[in-house]
Amino acid sequence: MTQQLDGTDTTSVALSTAPDRRVPRLTLPGVAELAVYVVAVACVVWPAILHARHAILGGSDDGRYYTWLGWRMGRLIAAGHIVPLHVPDVISPFGYDLRLIDGYLPSYVSGVYNLVVGPVLAFNLAMVTGAFLNVFSARALARRLSDRRLVHCLIAVAFLTAPSIGLSVQVSLLPLFWAFTVPLLIADALDVAAGTRGIRPVRLTVLLTLAFLCSIYFLVFGGLAYGAIIAVAAVRRREFKMPLAAIAAAGVAFVLLLPFVAPRIRFDRAEKRHGAKTELLADSTLYSADALQVLAQPTRATVRIPRPHAVDRALFRLPDTTHALEFTIFPGLLLLIGFVLFLVLPSPFRLPLAVAAGVLWLFSLGPSLKFGGDFVWTGAHGPVSFLPFRIVLSVPGLGALRAPARAGYVLTGLLAAASAVALDRVVRAAGSGARLVVVGAVCAGLLVTNLLIPLPTVSTNTTPASKRAFARVAQLARPGDTVLDVPADCDPALESYQIFHRTAIVGCAGSFAANPWHTKLVAYTRSTAFTKLRCDQKAYGRLTTRPRPLSPFDGADVAALRSDFHVRFVVVDRKQLTCASVTAAVAFMQQQYRSLGGDRRFEVLDLH
């Protein structure tokens, strides 16, 4: 059936008025398509997947944190907490509120995997699960826009391997790799824009809820894209009541998510009352996209294309010689070219998708505009905040949205939809035979530039010797005993050792947004004994502290650690011993208390 929107013929757009309820049959083309998806997923995690039992996918400490988180949630599930909301033995004696973390669902799935396999393999399986979810959700989006299998396959692989999404695997960001709700939200919005269906409140509620449980960024930016698309449709058709159903669905989703939303709002208010800045403006300025970053292919790309100096400077990099810790909103050449082609071809979706893509690109720039690595407007106190993202930070509960560049995940989904429409036209024009093979070959060549091989990995930082020492802690620990890592600076990888020693931990947790810095963790910085074991005297996580005169660490400090935080075991990390005062404190403890063993990096001391 031909749909007419603003006078444009849409016979080439495969949006049917009724769902196809035929049972799919397994065919040779279908098997070949599935094989392509398996190969594409393998490429995303290659060659690390060959060592999936002991090598954590990705090249950052976040991998260790999410490995621990899945393991800890698995233990809670096994203990009967089917929906665990609190970890009592982290940030001791305060505990860790799981309702405040970003990406509850992926970590929960990792926890379920932990019921049957080890922690490292469980984390890696959760990554692979996210990859397949991304593939099939992008394919579902392409099916709404084309009836050609080649288009479905190309768009699914393009979305999965898009550098803006694939870099999440490179830096072990499990929640952000679970981007499957993005194509589904866009597909639903396009159904409404085409007039194929009205807004389905129940489905939209479920999608918004799932988006939040994968990452707050998918809810905020995915919802923004959905709203932009249907807003254009409402104006076109002069159906201004249309958004009401979407608002109602968002309201129901908000109610369903209150167990997560309410604690976040209370948390922010409590932190603010104690002097915290809950609107992370400086962070969001730092982690914002450059105006040219959409063109910036990651340095880790297997097949590099030449890029101007300004585009190279648009990449955001953290200090790392392997370029694993590098961020971009680059969607890949295929989706960029497909989007440009889409803009010049007549399509009923041109305006809604172009508007939505423009809005998401604008929000990815954060509160201040940066072009070619330089801010275009600065004042006496740094970059001037004048872009719309500044409004997002002022919304209660969203002040911790510190990475506007993550709007690039949704931007990639919008470009995938636009490219599906453009590729459908190209494939139809090619017909069949040799020309179709040429089209497929050219598109495959463009997709090769998305590859980020080899995938770096990290280990648990343990050896058989340190594992034996940690096992001794598990054997000797009594209820209430805790472990302190020394130096006692805020180390995001601290929790991962709990997998081996199974004992409560004193110190910050990996997700800074879930740490009660000013309401509770300030107790660490006020403790003289704890402070003597910190090398960084100017800051503890997000707490700014002032150096103060301290006497040498002695037995009284050990007694204070025992009475205040129930510290019985100390894990000395020699790699992090960078200051003389803490080195001297470690020497004192080594002389006075017994060692449970360790290796060249770690030594475990029993203060009992």
How is this structure best described in words?
The protein is of the alpha+beta class. 52% of the residues lie in helices and 9% in strands. It has 25 helices and 19 strands. The strands form eight sheets. Strands 14-13-17-19-18 form a five-stranded mixed sheet, with helices on both faces. A two-stranded antiparallel sheet has the order 1-2. The chain has a two-stranded antiparallel ribbon with strand order 3-12. The protein is globular and about 80 Å long.
Blueprint of the fold:
Blueprint: E1 4-5, E2 8-9, H1 28-44, E3 56-57, H2 61-78, E4 86-87, E5 96-97, H3 104-113, H4 119-145, H5 149-161, H6 163-170, H7 174-177, H8 181-194, H9 201-214, H10 216-237, H11 242-256, H12 258-273, H13 281-286, H14 309-314, E6 316-317, E7 326-327, H15 333-344, H16 350-364, E8 370-371, E9 374-375, E10 378-379, E11 382-383, H17 389-393, H18 408-430, H19 434-448, E12 457-458, H20 464-476, E13 482-486, H21 498-501, E14 504-506, H22 517-526, H23 528-532, E15 539-540, E16 543-544, H24 555-565, E17 567-573, H25 580-592, E18 594-598, E19 602-606
Parallel strand pairs: 13-14, 13-17
Antiparallel strand pairs: 1-2, 3-12, 4-5, 6-7, 8-9, 10-11, 15-16, 17-19, 18-19
